[in-house]
Amino acid sequence: MNPITRILDEFPVIITDGAMATELERMGCDLNDSLWSAKILMEQPDLIKQVHSDYFTAGADCAITASYQSTIEGFAARGVTEAEAIRLIQESVKLAGQARDEFWAHEENRSDRPKPIIAASIGPYGASLADGSEYRGHYGLTEDELIDFHRPRMKALIEAGADILACETIPCLSEAKAITRLLEEFPGIYAWISFSAKDGRHISEGTPVSECAAWLDQHSQIAAVGINCTPTQHIPSLIEEIKQETDKPIIVYPNSGEQYDPVTKTWKGSACAMSFGKSAQSWYENGARLIGGCCRTKPEDIQAIADWARNLKTT
């Protein structure tokens, strides 16, 4: 049984964590770097572990590792050997696992929540380019080329012991297909695929999200389908589009409501008017079953989700 099904059989919702980079920046880290939070794996890994701990304390049932922008190619550009790059990628899973195990050993309310799981982040090919391509998706690569790109990191994260793979901020259906085909090389391993979206109906590249959900619905190793790194106002309609085409659990973890400009690498606009916790409750009522936050969200936002989610009853 995949870990998402196992938890949702007993609990009505899985709370994922919030932004890693936002918290690292709050701690004083400079992430204006092509490696983004992966840079901190090299420099201050204890801070990554601390962020995971903070989210578990806030109520997260799932930690997403700091491997989104961790690639062998990216580390090689810094003079890191392939062996050391693989070690760093795997370290992201170990840090999350250590934080989880230490938290769970002292958690008193185990009956109210599942033991948290570790989701190994697999960012899109575009993230490795550090030029905002994950919000466009027009790579000019074949599915086979995308498979070759993703294979070493996926293998490393699986061997590190991740519970599930978080294939996130995927901008195009071709990359989702490549990842799904690659998963077949690892029987018994499950992943969720969450897309970045440009509006309430289409993923970033322009494909209708309903078409993506329909294709992924046919593949048993895909444990959940959804949206992340997208403004909150698009989430309700995206959930509606997805649930028309699949019975798989729907995962949503949008940004705080502000919009990212990949050219200037800055955030514009303001956070959503409704509190993140109340917005998340509406997403649950729409049909989402894995809910958390992406960029610019904080442990307080995850706590706001937990405040109502812990009172739900499994139907």
TrEMBL record:
SUPFAM superfamilies in alphabetical order: Homocysteine S-methyltransferase
Molecular functions (GO terms): S-adenosylmethionine-homocysteine S-methyltransferase activity; zinc ion binding
Domain spans labelled Hcy-binding: 2-309
Coiled-coil regions listed in the entry: none
Pfam families, sorted: S-methyl_trans (PF02574)
InterPro entries in UniProt: BHMT-like (IPR017226), HCY_dom (IPR003726), HCY_dom_sf (IPR036589), Hcy_S-methyltransferase (IPR051486)
Cofactor note: Binds 1 zinc ion per subunit.
Domain of life: Bacteria
Presence of keyword Zinc: yes
Ligand binding (Zn(2+)): C229, C294, C295
UniProtKB keywords: Metal-binding, Methyltransferase, Transferase, Zinc
Cofactor(s) named in the record: Zn(2+)
GO biological process: methionine biosynthetic process; methylation; S-methylmethionine cycle
PANTHER family: HOMOCYSTEINE S-METHYLTRANSFERASE-LIKE ISOFORM 1 (PTHR46015:SF1), ZGC:172121 (PTHR46015)
Annotated protein name in UniProt: S-methylmethionine:homocysteine methyltransferase
